[in-house]
Design goal:
Layout lengths: L6 H10 L3 H14 L6 H11 L4 E5 L4 E6 L6 E8 L8 E15 L12 E7 L9 E6 L11 E3 L2 E3 L11 E7 L15 E14 L1
Antiparallel strand pairs: 1-10, 2-10, 3-9, 4-7, 4-8, 4-10, 5-6, 5-9
Length: about 210
């Protein structure tokens, strides 16, 4: 038994190169002419691939170990969020603020919670002025963060409204519940409501 190509088959292929082969090569050339040029179209492709995920999260580091909310309204600072590395040329669809509280603890010996409606956490680009350049990132309703007397419980994950009109991209974003300038800082029913391992972040949805 032998292996290989018959001489007659080779002869047939060679005899046909004058007609079929040029046509095949012309088709291949037409296809390759439609491929992206390098490097301009390659950059476009890299940009598209960079947007393969529908959103990106940016978190303040480190998280706040403990934030205390008492019954006297006052400014409460949260960690700042650094946003860097968003893909260039994107179109923002939605931007939301995220608050994550690992644990809640009451130290007032009575059921405790946010003790007024429409108390807020605000955000602004570093360098702005509270009361002028900030916007509401999250609103906490009356009785939010409800914790039983002298008890501890797991905390929630809360999402704010769309704030893409102000939070437009890369930068350092300061976060605060503001009483001095806005008079809407979060306040507890009793002293104190303690928040542990508090993370704040921004989620950018884009296309």
């Amino acid at each position: 038994m032998g292996f290989g190509v018959k001489q007659a088959d080779v002869a047939a292929i060679l005899a046909d190169t004058g007609t079929t082969l040029p046509a095949i090569l012309a088709t291949i050339l037409a296809k390759t002419d439609n491929l992206p040029a390098d490097p301009a179209d390659q950059s476009d492709l890299e940009t598209i691939l960079a947007r393969k995920y529908p959103f990106m999260d940016f978190w303040a580091h480190p998280a706040a170990d403990k934030i205390t909310v008492d019954s006297t309204p006052q400014d409460i600072a949260f960690p700042s969020i650094v946003v860097a590395g968003l893909p260039s040329g994107l179109t923002l669809v939605r931007v939301v603020f995220v608050l994550v509280i690992a644990n809640l603890k009451d130290t007032s010996a009575a059921d405790n919670y946010i003790n007024a409606a429409s108390k807020s956490i605000r955000i602004m680009l570093t360098g702005g002025a509270w009361g002028t350049n900030d916007i509401i990132a999250l609103t906490l309703d009356n009785q939010a963060l409800y914790t039983k007397a002298s008890a501890e419980r797991g905390g929630p994950v809360l999402y704010g409204p769309d704030i893409k009109a102000t939070v437009t991209g890369n930068g350092t974003w300061d976060v605060q519940s503001d009483e001095d300038a806005r008079s809407d800082a979060i306040v507890a029913l009793g002293d104190d409501l303690e928040l542990f391992d508090v993370s704040v972040g921004l989620r950018f949805f884009y296309q």
